[in-house]
Batch of 2 targets.
Target 1
Amino acid sequence: MKLDLVAIPVTPRKIVVSDFSWLPKADDILISQAKAVLTVVKDGDMKVVVNGNLQFVAEFSCDRCGERFSSDVDVEFTYFFKHGVDARFQEEEVELNEEDIDTVYLEEPSIDIHDILLDQYFLGIPESRLCRQDCQGLCHRCGERQSEEGCKCEPDMSDSPFAILAKLKK
Ligand SMILES: [Zn+2]
Ligand SMILES: [Zn+2]
């Protein structure tokens, strides 16, 4: 979904996204309840500010135990877009403020909403996917999930310092 910079009004325009076909198809991630709202406003000549929020529920497999679980993702974002090169950058010394650093310079006078949302989708997906922060993974002996109930195995003491001491004493 492309927005023409020239056509964006000076008064803020709210866009409720209904097309989520840009969401990547991945076998291991299931996305549901996706919602996205953006506010687009023109700020001077050929400069546009986009504020927005992307929410979805992602279902993954735990990196440690393989159990499926879901996680709510909610990301807020702000982009500054400018078309053309800022005349100030032609000068030798330019003091950059925070907004300059966050500004995206466009080659074409249009913004792709779906590209923005795709960026935010990847930022929102957690890098380590654990069903619980302290997930113990699978037992290396029986292959069962080590939950609070635990598996049926006896605690493995063979690697503990006490077990090594016991061997040394023999
Ligand atoms: Zn897990
Ligand atoms: Zn076990």
Target 2
Amino acid sequence: MKLAFFDNYKLGVVVGDKIVDVSAVTKGIKALGPQDVIRGVIEKWSSYKGKLAAAAKKGKGKPLAKVKLRPPLPKPENIICMAVNYMEDGTLPEPAPINAFMKSPSAVIGDGDTMVLPDMAASVFEGEAGNVKLTTNDDFARAEIVRYSALADVRTGNGFDVHAFADGDHVMLGGVRIPHSRGVTGHSDADVALHALVDAILGALADGDIGQHFPPSDPQWKGASSDRFLAFACERVRARGGMIANLDVTVVCEAPRVSPHRDAMRERIAAIAGISASRVAVKATTSEKLGFTGRGEGLVAMATATVRLPWSAP
Ligand SMILES: [Zn+2]
């Protein structure tokens, strides 16, 4: 026999694909809610068993599809009444459910709480150990720890990029347009900072380099904004179920001055990567007038990325 509360907490017996209202049988039970009815029925199960079965036989059934079950359950075949308190490991103790309930009569049966009555076949669902009930703030804090400790495969990659100065009036750095007396050569928008970051992320994933994914020979990347390259690399991390822990880039040039734009660059990189700016570092230095950067012939960027992946990631 399967019981279910339906519509306004009427007690019903499930017969095939119908539910028969047997509330009348339990009228004598002093009840504030369904849990009192269940408790009353359990306490005198030997006498209720027959009465409920008789009422179910006599009564007219209402199609299950037309009633509002309480608690709401996804599929009629999953109804067990207020079924089972499962053990922590998901097994169904036999005949513990009823005993457990009787031992703690103060337990409240709420939506989704379940209990097995005698003579009742329990429906057992495929469960997932990680699918835990979250109710209190502590539960959420614990779930967060579990989630992030699952991303324990921490990987680091580095990236390096150079572009030469050319005629022009600005450079793109970290997705930010910086006015300058010179421009930069390159097939896309020649943003050294973003290009180095893309290679750092791809490096952490051991997933090739920027030139492999966006060949300079391909005309579609001519003048392209480098945002999309960074967004692409970040998406590769997410596609593996991972997250970016931090991005760190150093720009080397005599000019333009980077520091006035540092925070704008951090914000922009963070926005493209979909992470907090607190996880993005932008640093700048000169090469003390030495080498090609010292002579103002071009810009260099070096980057590091740390990503966290699940151990199961390839
Ligand atoms: Zn580049």
